[in-house]
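User: Here's a protein and a ligand (P-hydroxybenzoic acid). What would the complex look like?
Assistant: Let me lay out the input and then the predicted complex.
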Amino acid sequence: MRTQVAIIGAGPSGLLLGQLLHKAGIDAVILERQSGDYVLSRIRAGVLEQVTTDLLDEAGVGARMHAEGLVHSGFDLLFQETRHHINLQALTGGKQVMVYGQTEVTRDLMAARAAAGLPTIYEASKVTVHDFDGAQPYVLYEKDGQQQRLDCDFIAGCDGFHGVCRASVPAGAITEYEKVYPFGWLGLLADTPPVHHELIYANSSRGFALCSQRSATRSRYYLQVPLTDKAEAWSDEAFWQELRMRLDPEARETLVTGPSLEKSIAPLRSFVTEPMRFGRMFLAGDAAHIVPPTGAKGLNLAATDVKYLSMAFIEYYLERSSAGVDHYSQRCLQRIWKGERFSWWFTSLMHRFPDEGAIGQKLQEAELAYLVQSQAASTVLAENYVGLPL
Ligand code: RFL
Ligand code: PHB
């Protein structure tokens, strides 16, 4: 089989790239190691920046998001048992964010791809990438026990943090920057009304908590937990009890609990790969960088990579220019490092760090008090949260 762009991974990065290329008349085949149902069962991001919603519109998959997504013009910061409103809209000259789950973004992209009859090969195993340093790269994979070969002009590595593309780059050609945090997030999804109409980010002496949502009847909550904890060992009751203790008195009163639909622990990491292009292979999204989820930046950074990568391929095929391809890595990394900085800073401000003791908490509370009192400091938070300009 032959295609112009072989996309590895059918997460949001790979599917969005496939859709944007299709709109431009460029051929792509997507290879995904899991089943479609499995990809949809992963509960992840919830907050989309306008850059991302604009791109989903451009890809022609924004209709359900606009109908069902929740536009948020602010969020609450909770510390010392008191909530403070961060008015994103007022602080950023009218910008807002969209609360719409990654699962739904993925579902919309999958449906558009299926409706256009575009090829996605699910349950493709033993994917390997070859000759991306030369002019004729190709991909080998197994489907139903048979080895297959996909020849292509370019390989797009949209295969996430544990993918095969980054792992196939010779060690001397890549630099990796990494910080692993000494805790994780335990997430719980439940069909209960959200505790508040906006998100609440909580710094408590018991650890960080986040109250998020998917709709007026579906809530998503997170608790900072030690890395040694297991999701199975947390009963729903224990989760709700711990969450209550990290909230303010009003939220504690109004929290509606119920059986969990999903519970899982995600480790927190900051990670960047430089460069993001290796000859005819490009990395995009979590394959190239990871942020801790506190700033809600992961999917949004992935979407920007995909925007730049689709533009690079469009320039290459339609305008016969390799300028976009040549600048891809540098263009992405400028934005990624700013997202990394913000995510690291917000994570550091909101979580309990085992080694920092009581003084760590006091310093965080002083910074939070400054943050909500100073318009300049609130503006820095708000303009990063809604997304920096491209
Ligand atoms: P994904 O979603 O990991 O998809 C990669 C796909 O590649 C497949 N794959 C392979 N396929 C073929 N062959 C191989 N060898 C393969 N190896 C892997 C995988 O099966 C998978 O389907 O990466 P992608 O597409 O780059 O998307 C990135 C986002 O998923 C991620 O950045 C966000 O979820 C991060 N994130 C958030 N981002 C936001 O912008 N806003 C948020 O509010 C937000 N909240 C979050 C988050 C991530 C979280 N977790 C679980 C880490 C909250 C959490 C808790
Ligand atoms: C989510 O709803 O899953 C979510 C929201 C905001 C974050 C992280 C995750 O910062």
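Summary: The longest helix spans residues 323-350.
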